[in-house]
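anyone else get weird line breaks when pasting these?? whatever heres mine. first is seq + tokens for prot A
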Amino acid sequence: MLPVALCRKKSRSWLNPLFRIGYKRRLEEDDMYKVLPEDGSERLGEELQRHWDHEVQKAAKDLRPPKLTKVLIKCYWKPYAVLGIFTLIEEVIKVIQPVFLGKLIQYFEKYDPDNMDALYEAFGYAAGVCLSTLILAVMHHLYFFHVQRTGMKVRVAMCHMIYKKALCLSSAAMGKTTTGQIVNLLSNDVNTFDEVTIFLHFLWVGPLQAAAVLGLLWVEIGPSCLAGMAVLVILMPTQTMFGRLFSKFRSKAAALTDNRIRTMNEVVSGIRIIKMYAWEKPFSALVNDVRREEISKIMSSSYLRGLNMASFFAASKIIVFITFTVYVLLGNTISASRVFVAVSLYSAVRLTVTLFFPSAVEKLSEMRVSVRRIKTFLLLDEIVKSSHGFLQEEKQEPSVEIQDLICYWDKVNVQLLSPVPPSHFPQSSLLSAILGELPHDKGVLKVKGQLTYASQQPWVFPGTIRSNILFGKELHPQKYEKVLRACALKRDMELLPDGDLTLIGDRGATLSGGQKARVNLARTVYQDADIYLLDDPLSAVDAEVGRHLFEQCICGILKNKPRILVTHQLQYLQAADQILVLKEGHMVARGTYSELQRSGVDFTSLLKREEGPQAPGAETESRSPRSRTLSQNSVVSHTSSIRSGTEQLPVGPTVVEESRSEGTIGVGLYVKYLKAGANILVLIGVVLLQFLAQAAYVLQDWWLAYWAGEQEKLNVNGTVTVQNGVNVTEELNLDFYLGIYAGLTGATLIFGFARSLVMFNVLVKAAQSLHNRMFNSILRTPVHFFDVNPIGRVLNRFSKDIGQLDAALPWTFVDFVQIFLQIIGVVAVAASVIPWILIPLVPLIIVFLFLRRYFLQTSRDVKRLESTARSPVFSHLSSSLQGLWTIRAFRAEERFQNTFDAYQDLHSESWFLFLVTSRWFAVRLDGMCAVFVTITAFGCLLLRDQMEAGSVGLALSYAVTLMGMFQWGVRQSAEVENMMTSVERVVEYTELESEAPWETQKRPPPEWPSQGLITFDRVSFSYSSDGPVVLKDMKAMFRPKEKVGIVGRTGAGKSSLVSALFRLAEPEGRIYIDGILTSEIGLHDLRQKMSIIPQDPVLFTGTMRKNLDPFSQHTDEDLWNALQEVQLKSVVEELPNKMETVLAESGSNFSVGQRQLVCLARAVLRKNRILIIDEATANVDPRTDELIQTTIRDKFRECTVLTIAHRLNTIIDSDRILVRVLDAGQIHAYDEPYTLLQNHDGIFFKMVQQAGRQEAVALLHSAKQAYNSRSRPSTTNGGVGADGNLVIFETAL
């Protein structure tokens, strides 16, 4: 039974069912085998982590830096050392095989038809050749399978450690690294472990084998062999030097790649803003610059690779040439057996010495770079874990106690310049201190009880809404329902296609801002914690929802728990038990609402201004109106419970499945790929070069055989001529034979090097041009594409796939072409010697073609599964990094680690299958080669009568080289096809649909729009062709210089109005600005003429100057003035390099409010006639809000301003207010605020009432004031001269 089991294991026949399935249909994830327990991510990672922790402690004791390499060796050396035995056996057989070959050829040299003993002996040698071929086939693949599996284990363990580390980075450490860098560690750096394990053993096997070969050659051809060995010895250090240089270029390129991916990350994340600002060109230039540098490094390293490859092919030729030139010149005669034993021995040792040994050195040096990078990351500061739990016996009140607390984000800069706080309000910093994210320098901070936290910028992770709310807790239906109701999510769930099982895309792409905020809050409320930290959860929602959340949730469900609420909305302060007023990081006042009002701190003046005039005694009765508004409210909110987010809710799970193309890769794709790199003429030249090189290669060996044959004829016939009476033995004309031999060797060298370099040049150029095309296509595609494709998927194209095109594909492609030509050469030589060998070759080729198709069908699917199984690993990492504080506050690190391990295991399943399937195939192919060798060897013996020793030698020595080469060539062809899927994915993205052109023939006049009159005429709008219509038949006109407020429930399509105006998707109907139809002009002409202050302020990595003025159109003075006007001048002046300071990733060293101000400064700089403000003040405190409002009233007096607002007080003094209703996507009312407030049944009146009584009184007062101070225009046309177009619209409206 055991031998059968062993055979099955060696031939991997347990894979056959999988291949059968793969042949019939496309493989899915469920078809893969579960990962073996010893390959599980958690098990491997924890083991390595244990060793690493031990090493860190020991290093700290010995006062030295810890060594990661040492840890790796300690953890894996035993199983890996055992594999060395396989290599040893394999290499020994490789050396013995040429000896058998030599004896076989000798039989033909001394051929005597009557000597039967010699024949039997020859049969023995032939069997020896065939057997050693077979043993080699098995050993080789056993070894490779096991070392690659070891490599996989090391990589998986490393990834586990990197992720684990990422979860506990302190804020200071987060400033020293970026998401891009961590993703790069996981995607590229750990891959070196997969490669290095393959070659390491050759570091010791190589020299041993070389010594053995040298001995055998000495016996065979004497001292001449030293000449050949000398060439080998010279080749080794040159190749090692190439390797060194190569890794130098590689690490330079890696840094540039990091940079490019980071920029790409920002471009994809901020694509909406980039489009609205019409900033595609500077970003395109930025990426192209980085890419150009990167490509120049890649080109250099590719040329090195090309030289390396060509020298590898030419090495054997040079060695044999030098050996035999020396041998003949020393006066020896050449013979077939000597020639071919030498050729075979050299080719045995050459592979090890010129390929495996240098590869080992190269991979080792690459691994050292990676290990260094990973070690630096693993040694970053971690956050100090504090235990906030209770001891069992204590039954205390949960509490937070703070005294004389002083904290710095960054000890060095005490100004408010931090690596990574999400916001700079001291309030948020206070919460971070309580959470333990902000290290405290002095003072006391004691927390008793379990904390939970809702962040200011809502964070959701990819998954269902339910999984986002439960966050690892059990589902208790009643409690869950209660939380949904309290967080006003009930109605949303009814509206979403799959209810709470709707999939949220990357970074919550499918939810509106308000919905994200409420899901974020619901997650916090669902946890059973002792203390709730709420960082401004009410700012992203409108007043009605805010009130509902405050009453039902914060003062409802949570009423018996301590809550620390950071808020800018002062109407809720009366309900607080205690109020802390913070100003610029200091506590200014503290006490109850009434105490503070009596104390007359600055805060109350702030309050009074907010509340407007009110009776001094109103304070005491503040409770009763609250309960009244509550009851009205609850009716409204339960009926309409805020339908939000429908503006972006396509039906069905919105994140589209990643496309995974099926079937074979068409010839068309190869043509596209090659034509991207060069024109047709160059390509024809390349093909010719390839054939010339191969012809020279074969002819050189054939000449040697021919020479040996001629020599033998002389030896046998022993022709003696009589010259002048002296007997002279006739000799061959050495000069003639050597001259042609030298010429052929030279040709082989020249053509060999030329073809390698030219091919690499073409392929790297192809990668460059495809990248540029893909990037331009991404920039030009409509925004909807980014709503349905998660950022990880787009980045995967730019990191993984472009990485393949840059490095792996050119090398594999060139390798495949060269090997393919060599295989044809081998078969041609064999057929020219024994023509009938073509007969058994036909069935072999048929079997081979079937096997290849059979294998590729499955292998390609496995490979595709592998690359799609990779995406979740990266997506999970980047979403975890975004929600780091939340994950830590909820103590969910372990759960996220387990999810990560599960994703890794899924990837390992496909990777393991990929390893096993490729070995399954290789064993079968090598088996076929062994059959070919056997046929050739025994065929020569059977036809011994018409054979020449030289031809036999040529045919057999070539057949033996076919062994590893054939299966490698076929695997490379499969690899090329697999890697072409990357080309396919890139090409797919170069052909995305694109938006309207940036510039058209019809250019608006340069001073347009001079007035800022905007007219909507029957405009309908939806985000995608099959999406729901968000605006229906909308008609409206915004007069020049008018300030219009746009209000409506969350999701009433307020932002869609902006999208239609900016043509983020093409609206139906007509929009005119100053009488010009916007759909007729180019997008850039349109977008550059409107300024927007977006809902989420986006800053990009780069200098402050680049962020304000990427086109460098403004003077320094303009920039400073703009900063002055938004009160950021002082902040920027405090930065180390002022305007030239490079901002942290996505501007995280500024608070949300400050980032908002930067966006305002951009608008101030643009001096456009039209300004759109999209809920810009939702996340800022009243002071910043007021600052923004004043700047707008002052700087944009002459402009048409459309404000989409949550806070009614920001728009109550507008000229007119547009009230949108969700249900029909239409306008409910559009008039002056005061006029709207007279209609007590109107939605606007109800919205004002919901803000609370005092607020309502104040709002009415402001509206009345604004109404009275306004001068009424006499003309109906908003003061614009009767422009034909517009008059028609006046009547239409």
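and prot B, same format (seq, then tokens)
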Amino acid sequence: MECLKFVVGTFLLLLSTPARCDEDGLFWIGVGIADCTGPAAGIGLVVRRLQEEFGGIYHQENVILSGTHTHSGPAGFLQYLLFQITSLGFSEETYNANVDGIVNSIRAAHGNLQPGNVYYNEGELLEANVNRSPISYLNNPPEERVQYEYDVDKILQLLKFQSLAGDPLAMFTWFPVHATSMNNTNKLLSGDNKGVASMIVEAAFNPGALPGKGSFVAGFAASNLGDVSPNIKGPRCIDTGEPCDPVTSACGGTVGNCIAFGPGDNMEESTWIIGERQANKAMELFEDVANLRLLTGTVKYVHQFVDMTNVVVERRDIFGHMRQGRTCKPAMGYSFAAGTTDGPGMFDFTQGETDTNPFWDFVADFIQDPTPEQVACHAPKPILLDTGEIGWPYLWQPEIVDTQIGLIGDLAIAAVPGEFTTMSGRRLRNDMTQVLESHGAENPTVVIAGLSNTYSDYITTYEEYQASDVVQRYEAGSTIYGPHTLQAYLNQYVYILESVLSGATVPPGPTPPDLLDKMLIIPPVLFDTAPGGTDFGDCTVPPPATVNRGDVIRVDFITGHPRNNVRHGDTFLAVERLLDTGEWERIAVDANWETNRFTVRTLQGATMECLKFVVGTFLLVSTPARCDEDGLFRIGVGIADCTGPAAGIGLMGYANPSQTGAGIHMRQFARTFIICDDPGECLVFVIADMGMMDTAVKTGVVRRLQEEFGGIYHQENVILSGTHTHSGTAGFLQYLLFQITNLGFSEETYNANVDGIVNSIRAAHGNLQPGHVYYNEGELLEANVNRSPISYLNNPPEERAQYEYDVDKILQLLKFQSLAGDPLAMFTWFPVHATSMNNTNKLLSGDNKGVASMIVEAAFNPGALPGKGSFVAGFAASNLGDVSPNIKGPRCIDTGEPCDPVTSACGGTVGNCIAFGPGDNMEESTWIIGERQANKALELFEDTANLRLLTGMVKYVHQFVDMTNVVVERRDIFGHMREGRTCKPAMGYSFAAGTTDGPGMFDFTQGETDSNPFWNFVTDLIQDPTPEQVACHAPKPILLDTGENGALCHMAGFAFQAMEETEVRVQKKSTEELSDQDTRNTRGSGSRSLLLGPHPINRTSFVTRIGWPYLWQPEIVDTQIGLIGDLAIAAVPGEFTTMSGRRLRNDMTQVLESHGAENPTVVIAGLSNTYSDYITTYEEYQASDLVQRYEAGSTIYGPHTLQAYLNQYVYLLESVLSGATVPPGPTPPDLLDEMLTFIPPVLFDTAPGGTDFGDCTVPPPATVNRGDVIRVDFITGHPRNNVRHGDTFLAVERLLDTGEWERIAVDANWETKYEWENTNFFLGESVAHITWHVPADATPGTYKIRHFGEQKDIFKAITSFEGECPQFQVV
């Protein structure tokens, strides 16, 4: 039996296979994990211990030990003096802890050896590493650099271990990034980003297990990380904020001020993010069955010790001549002392330093004056420490190193004894790959396992080592065997690989020294005492009696020194929870991310132990379902294209008339789940990439469903919800106010939306099958902020004190799974506006919610184009009324200062106050916020420990409600009950200010409650609100009396009429004076189009009629609840603010509890069925210190709106749970026959002379690189001629080896843009601009870009066309 063992940090991979294998990929495999609380130890004692226990199975040649390179593990375990200096010597405790942990890990793996398979996969991981010495990398030959897209390797390599029964056993990955996310101010032991990645994956596969206690093992190993940093924001001068000097990594000559920053706001957050990104990519590759490659063949290994101090090599100089060189005795250069931007040095050295320094020359010469031969050998590196010639009191750095390769079939693991830089690693991979290929390997794969067996510092290329323009940096200064180090290693690894593949014997090489008996030891712990009046273990600072989820608890104990016992497999702390049985369950220990333990030395010689515990989402533990309820439902999911016209129609959301659609960035989709219980009751939920839902849309959908399916789906059991994207086409709502900025109703948009929703429901109905539904929830940070915090503060302090944040941070998720256990869908709710794309955008987009759906669906539907896979991921809106994705907050774009917190203005102007997202532009911010929602959803989806099976019955209840005169009661500040009522709709002044996500166009400010004489005149001209209406809406000053008015189309009619009249006479009737006949006369029949020029209007009659030309805002709204067991989905017809949503959840939860719900859960589905603007709390509505803001100004039914909704939803829930009948309520109007539109139609299309539709007028370059952006132009027709549902306006295709073309991207992909430009309005000429951002992982080859469209001739006939540009090469 041939065995190969690989240990990375605390993880072991053990494989064995018969010496002769019939290539079936069956191995004996075992995996293990054990506590070692520190980085990898020397291999010698580990092998000795293994041979004592297991005989000759494990030995020097087949055991690989590798460190993750965490910089937060205890030091003192290496036997060479230089690595002991800063830890004050050798630490026997650290050394023994490491060896014990590694041996225990191998023992565990040996104990569970079993037949199984090993698979390989790899994939590109972006935003997780950067080159920290790019100026050095540029010294490599240009012809070599051009072969690579990045200056660091972005490929994560993975091995998947699976039992013979198909059970997952382990994953081991290699990815080049330093474990330096925790910087040099950290004093707590940590696995850094590699440890986080392991923890995340192991938690996913070992639900409920504490860290290190589960059976599934996930190892995240180092690769060629020498010049690679996790601090992806790069280095900045902390004193000025400016970039550091790129050569010296200094700020004004000082390296200490030049610090590189990770992606988070602090080192812990950055550690988590980089670790999580590695974990997510690894899990993606682990589940990517289409690309996992079964490893077959035999296990082999080869090892040799090499004296690196005088290896002769040959290299080709710049003239092509072969030159001989040799390696040197170890020495450290000046640049070594500068440190890196991850951790600067302590003295006055700078990166890139090659000139000597008189003072440090003296210091260096005092320690050891290097010989002329040593100086010449290391040139051009000036020697700071001549470590190879000192030798006192024992060796300072290694001279003899391990070189080793392990083979699993065609996969070679090169265990290298140090830190290869990016290009050094690439050269090693290339050389070894050529050897594998020469021996007939079909899938030659090389993995570089860095920091293995021996540590000999850095290995740079010859070119990086040179000091051209003073660029020899830290890595070269730390290349201890001189400029020819890399070539010596390349020759050595080629030699041992050739030898093992050809069966040649490799001599063991010189024996390295065993220096353990010579070590200088750090001081011991002398004794521990407890302060007077206390004893060890006393809790001196207890926790609060009550804490909220998300709080941070810190308690103090009297303790002894932790060096007294490393407590392997045990813990210094435990957080435990009392179970109903009276037993205590341990839920967190010192190995958990959410706990910290540190000690502070006191003067008496005693220690105070501090324990910090974060109460996080892991406390959201669900009660198991009752045994008599198996949670089996019939479930179906579906997705369909609901994209509206791609151009020529305004976008819905910002109310900006200039924001007219001009193409597609992302297609918009409707996503549906249907769930039916055993009696046959079904609930339909649709989340569509639309601004909101509308009564007319739901009516049209239900009508179509009943025509097709009969009575299965109806008004009561169908919920339609919008994501609230502000980049979808407008004109689909039937109420006039929402049509004004779009120039009226758009039948094209309406039909596209209804068609897409119906198709989505049809698809879900078609795949109904038995399955289960699970619920989970978790906290998502850095994805939303309150955009009206001053308004939120108007809520009672005692209510606000119950919550940690001024927005909800919980993402709620439903997981749909087939009876066979296959994932079918996820649907989530999270409160954040889909306003990452701002009001300058003119391309259709699903915004951050659409991005989240795209990311998740791509992960579960590998290879499928957007909208074409079977797995569906819906990201729905919740109580997002005052919640923004622009988490950097609002700033004055003219000064950079914060906006006025009350008015959201800058010098009185709202237009200069803009809120910014986390990215450098709106597209980047959209992706980031979407990705964060997607990542949290994926985490919850896989969190089997906390997923709760939904059981029980499917129920639903629906009622239409007239919201214009609902009587409510509320308690005043004196405790007295006061009666109030809702009002007819009206919009306040603050509404016109817009928000910091999209400011208004006029001179209104947020928080405005004082009236304005000019706008009072304008308002009164449209409709003077009655005294009753003014009193009802107080303290909101009414800008648009939409519920009583007889208004012109945003004064468009007034503008036309003013051309002809110099005097306007206004006559008004009160509401009471209008007869039914008056009202009927204001309604026309049929859809009317008012397009060009002034229209004669009888102003006297025009302004007197209520609701002219039809209702401006809804009076009757949908209220609806869907129930799946104890989970209630409240479909609300508008945008509830944070606190409004909390009150609704609380009230509904109390109702569920009163009816015996074991796990009462309330989901708020915002913007559902009808859109009635905003719903604030009574307190937010009030104008204390001028804080009534946009949301309150847009609360159209007055200050008691929320209470009316709370009463209504409590009534509905009580009724459905008790079996009471709920009457349908008043029927809302169907206004589709009365719609007005000023939207000009498409008259005709023509192609410019000498061209035809589909002609490619701007072709792509002949050759492009991965990562490039390509833009091509086509002669086209108007995209309104056909929305092309389920199809595309563009296609990027790749030529296959078979001669067929594979479609790899369409207009629904994030990396493409379809932009339409009307180049000649009068002749109907237009151009399609198609952009493709070539993915960084695009397969090299031949590509082409195609365009599809329709053109309308002067006789209104529409004809399809297509075209394609010349082919091009992606390299």
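btw re prot B: The longest helix spans residues 267-287. The chain has a mean pLDDT of 85.
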